[in-house]
Amino acid sequence: MSLKTAGIHHITSFAGDPQGNVDFYAGVLGLRLIKKTINFDAPEVYHLYFGNEKGSPGTIITFFPAPGTRKGKIGGGQVGITTYVVPPGSMDYWENRLHSLKVSFTKATRFGESFIQFRDNEGLHLELVEREEGPVNTWTAGGVPRDKAIKGFGGAVLYSADSKHTQGVLENVLGMTPIGEDADAGYIRYQTTGDLGNLIDIPVKDVPWGNGGAGTVHHIAWRAQDDTEHQAWDEWVRQHGFGTSGIVDRQYFNAVYFREQGGILFEIATDPPGFTVDEELNELGHKLMLPEWYEPQRAEIESNLVPIEPRVLQQDESV
Ligand code: ZN
Fold it and tell me: How far is the CA of 12 from the centre of ligand 1 (A)?
């Protein structure tokens, strides 16, 4: 038996400011707030999900924005850069948009592709790249036109504290294929089968350890196609010598967590049931959704959370 993930399912990060988080991912990047819920282990903290119209696997970034969260340091043992893919020909639009919303950016090249790199309002490192692959996003926020909208993840740059070991996990556990090395930039690239979240770059050199906190990624989740395959993944990961969390119910998918030797927390997450399991497609993200066992405490939980809403940000067209 051998298993192969189609690519990234979701990426989960820490943040400190709930409305600032919504303003960046919906207001600046134009993603849809697809689910407003709480951290099931800490109900005083939001868990916010952003993605394409449906919150398809490969488009989902999630946050635990908790006021007072200490700032983290990006480094080894984390996803270093989260890569978003936009349609070919839309980079000028994004440069102008970031400029008018006062988000500074730089340019970088890897594997012959041009990236614009920037940070979110809390320091999380992001980049945009143009690619043909991936379905067009059919719903956007913040005034971004559909033909320029972010499609989802292109992939991610993994900052491993033990690059050789992490490369081994990508190839031998996750089933990805090494497709090349960019010796000038110092990266190896892995590819898998999905049309989003399918290209993973990893620095050849080990990256010094980071610290978790606001502005850093907590974990990256890889796709399993269904619950049957998910059980096989739990076995498969254990067979490779990793301790796992066992299967955990996350309401919108099932999860298995394990930490690879380069220090990065990996999760295997099921594509089903998805975000329409408790809300209609056109209602996603409007109401605070609670798992059944928290419903009796809804009034108290809501009173502890600061209200948030997606909104269109004022652009400064004069800059
Ligand atoms: Zn997760």
Answer: 6
